[in-house]
Design goal:
The protein has helices spanning about 40-55, 60-65, 70-75; strands at about 10-15, 25-30. The protein is mainly alpha-helical. It has one domain. It has a two-stranded parallel ribbon. The termini are far apart.
Length: about 80
């Protein structure tokens, strides 16, 4: 639990892994945004969230499988 919420239902989106290092299974990395024209990352993220996670009972399994964040931190 984090506060009064179950970790199975929490998604953390950030450009720095350090922001969610204690909950890597909940973290989705995203490229930094500095106002670049043509940036489509939020549209892609929205599509992923709707297509993949909206029906998931536990987002951590999907996030771990699709983003490999935990694997990257052990290199």
């Amino acid at each position: 639990m984090l506060g009064n919420r179950e970790l199975s239902n929490i998604i953390i989106v950030d450009n720095k892994v350090e922001s969610y290092s204690s909950n890597l299974e909940n973290g989705i990395p995203i490229i930094s945004y500095y106002g670049q024209e043509g940036d489509e990352m939020l549209k892609k993220l929205t599509s992923y969230l709707i297509r993949t996670l909206v029906h998931s009972d536990d987002v951590r399994g999907c996030i771990s499988k699709d983003f490999y964040v935990k694997d990257l931190t052990t290199l």
